[in-house]
């Protein structure tokens, strides 16, 4: 039994194929510069099809046919408040992922595209979504609510969601195991093209630097991070 894990970033696609139940990695790789000038990989759909070819053809082939894959796990960046853990993907889940495109425009469309390609390529496999926001659903209200009118939350769900949850969860679990202290208070730092920090208490996220979308907090590769909102109005008037 094989499980394919897909991590679609804003400009990259990482993957790893595991033989189960041994949890043995049998194939892995990375496609970069997706959608960038001069790249022949125009979008994440093209990237995933390239991955499938690498896994199934040539001397390093790890599968004989699509039927060898029984589960495909997809990292999905934004799950809103609805998704609090791994979720089997159906049409309703896809609808919710698509509804959140505007909140994670660099990521959710890419995640959605990979889901559709995987569904077509592995029609008999179970597709499972793992949401970056799920780990942060334990953040208390005092930390996830903004100091804005109540109706912005009740009607529009404007709140801190947090991201990179799968990374922060894994790092905190490893740190807790290494420290042999399940009640450890930790700060986890995720550094990549996107960056964030999370405060963790006894394995639960209690605060994080990213907010409503994956733009706020630390400075990143193509995102400024926190910036005073008055800068926008100043530039509108003077630039």
Task: Tell me what you see in this structure.
- The chain is α+β, with helices and mostly antiparallel strands and 239 residues long.
- The protein folds into 2 domains: 2-131, ATPase, nucleotide binding domain (Nucleotidyltransferase, domain 5), CATH 3.30.420; 165-238, Nucleotidyltransferase, domain 5 (2-Layer Sandwich).
- The protein has helices at 44-56, 91-99, 108-121, 141-144, 150-154, 165-179, 230-238; strands at 2-8, 13-19, 24-31, 69-76, 87-88, 126-131, 185-191, 195-201, 204-208.
- It has a 6-stranded mixed sheet, covered by helices on one side. It has a 3-stranded antiparallel sheet with strand order 7-8-9, with helices on one face.
- The longest helix has 15 residues, at 165-179.
- The chain is globular and about 60 Å long.
- The mean pLDDT is 93.
What is this structure's SSE topology?
Layout: E1 2-8, E2 13-19, E3 24-31, H1 44-56, E4 69-76, E5 87-88, H2 91-99, H3 108-121, E6 126-131, H4 141-144, H5 150-154, H6 165-179, E7 185-191, E8 195-201, E9 204-208, H7 230-238
Parallel strand pairs: 1-4, 4-6
Antiparallel strand pairs: 1-2, 2-3, 5-6, 7-8, 8-9
């Amino acid at each position: 039994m094989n499980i394919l894990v897909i991590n679609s970033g804003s400009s990259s696609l990482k993957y790893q194929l595991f033989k189960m139940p041994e949890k043995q990695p049998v194939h892995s790789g990375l496609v970069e510069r997706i959608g960038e000038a001069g790249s022949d990989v125009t979008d994440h759909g093209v990237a995933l099809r390239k991955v499938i070819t690498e896994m199934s053809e040539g001397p390093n082939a790890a599968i004989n046919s699509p039927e060898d894959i029984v589960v495909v796990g997809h990292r999905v960046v934004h799950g809103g408040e609805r998704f609090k853990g791994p979720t089997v993907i159906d049409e309703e889940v896809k609808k919710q992922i698509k509804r959140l495109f505007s909140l994670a425009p660099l990521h959710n469309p890419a995640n959605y595209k990979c889901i559709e390609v995987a569904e077509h390529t592995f029609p008999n496999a179970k597709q499972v979504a793992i949401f970056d926001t799920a780990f942060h659903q334990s953040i208390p209200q005092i930390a996830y609510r903004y100091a804005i009118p109540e109706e912005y939350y009740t009607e529009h769900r404007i709140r801190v969601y947090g991201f990179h949850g799968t990374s922060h969860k894994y790092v905190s679990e490893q740190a807790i195991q290494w420290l042999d202290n399940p009640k450890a208070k930790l700060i986890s730092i995720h550094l990549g093209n996107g960056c964030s920090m999370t405060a963790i208490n006894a394995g639960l996220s209690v605060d994080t630097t990213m907010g409503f979308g994956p733009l706020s907090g630390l400075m990143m590769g193509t995102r400024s991070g926190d910036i005073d909102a008055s800068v926008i109005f100043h530039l509108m008037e003077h630039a």
